[in-house]
Amino acid sequence: MTRRLSPAEAQAVITEASARIIEQGFDAAMFTTETVIGAFLPIKSYLRLAKQFTRHEDRQIRDGLLDHAISNNIIEKPGSATFADVVKFLKYLISPVGQQVQYLEQQKAKLRRKPGFSPDQAQAQITEASARIVEHGFDAALFTIDAVYGAGLPISQFLKLAKKFTMFDRGFRDELLTEAIRSNIIKAPSSATFADVVNFLYYLRLPFEQRSKYSVQKAKLCRKVGDDGVVQEAAVKIFKPQMDDFATPQKRGSILELAGGVEVPPVVDSLTFSPNKRARGDSS
Prior knowledge:
There is one protein chain. The protein is mainly α and 284 residues long. It folds into 2 domains: 106 residues, no CATH class; 140 residues, no CATH class. Helices cover 62% and strands 0% of the residues. Helix 1 packs parallel to helix 4.
């Protein structure tokens, strides 16, 4: 039988669980037994919520999570936030989008730990690889580390994909893009998302004779599920004949990704990421 915590013991575990949150500049006086109970949270539930944030030992990961939440109006800045704001933020972190944001910050942390390869260097590579794509009217702001990881792509893979388009001269690139727009593979550059660009680059990996087949099947898919997005299950079903045409694991994997079969779902377009923004309390 579990022993019930005394008021002093309950306060001690709340204080300990909140230590890394307080480090971000939040008022330590907010984290009491009374505020937890007042938020209709069992103490155990609060401890589980807090761990979504405090489990990240890397302070820069926690900084990134908080910056993202502030820029998307999930939470007030630490100096003016209430305990209710903190709870809202912690609950956000366990949502699908919150889990995606944590994934992105973890990937950036891996870059920071990689010898001789900083996030700034990674961004520079992405920008350079995308330069000829941007020349065609795509928004340069689409091509970021967050967007690449949000599409479930290692940076090295995006660089290889981009070459499928940028390796050609301007005239031939114009022809490729015009044909893809006509075939509903990608939207016009001015309204295309990063996901549209990735889909287009995967399309370019298909052998020429497979492209018209893909265009027809994608049109059927759009009529079934709408133009706003591709349902993965429907996509896999429709692309199954194409997948069976490809014998090598590498080509099969490419079609699966083209059909939406990436492990990590893309970040919601309405969210903004500001890795360089620092709008927290004292981070000393």
